Amino acid sequence: MISVLLIEDDLDLAQTVMDYLQLEAISCDHASNGAAGLNLLEQNYYDVLLLDLNLPRIDGLTVCERLRSEGSDIPVLMLTARDQLIDKQAGFAAGTDDYLVKPFELKELVMRIQALSRRRSGQTQLLRCGDLQMNLQQRQLSRADINLHLSPIGWRILELLLRESPNVVSRQRLEIAIWGEEVPDSDSLKVHLHHLRKTIDGGFDTGLLQTIPGIGIAIRADNES
Fold first, then answer.
1. Is the confidence at residue 71, as pLDDT, over 90?
2. Taking Cα atoms as reference points, which of 64, 217, 204, 189 lies closest to residue 142?
3. 0.70 exceeded by pTM
């Protein structure tokens, strides 16, 4: 079952949405202000966040920005009566994944929830695995609070691996993501992975970069599989 959190201060609309989602077999929790919503997000796992823009205590843009700055990759669907392009730009800049203008059709809301639930958001600005942390906004990489430096290609490889972590990424997918259809030679990826492993694992007690024979590469902490 898909699980969503609705942060909406219009209680009549919130009740209508929750009742409809229940009929569609979608579980929905509700918070009426941004602060309460953030508390629920800390306590529970949700597949999608439905976020009103105008909220008491903490507004929707701030909620979204805070989630992204903390590394949350929950897909965010912003619900708002503001339909101007500048308002949508502000929402996407804050890290929302989709935008639905009020009033909206409940069937369309369900379709968008279903689509978003099939993927995690690419809008997060902080990627983590164990004590390894990549800040995309500041272009900083650290492990155990030690700053690390990568080549541009090494950064792209690590970003993809962290976004997919703990899942395995095939070598072919890594090559296409870096070079497109023009892969330099068969050893290029191997060389970059060697330098990446030396940078993020060298001098540390545990290794995060794992080679899965015949399958691909993964970034995993000890408690992930």
1. no
2. 204
3. no
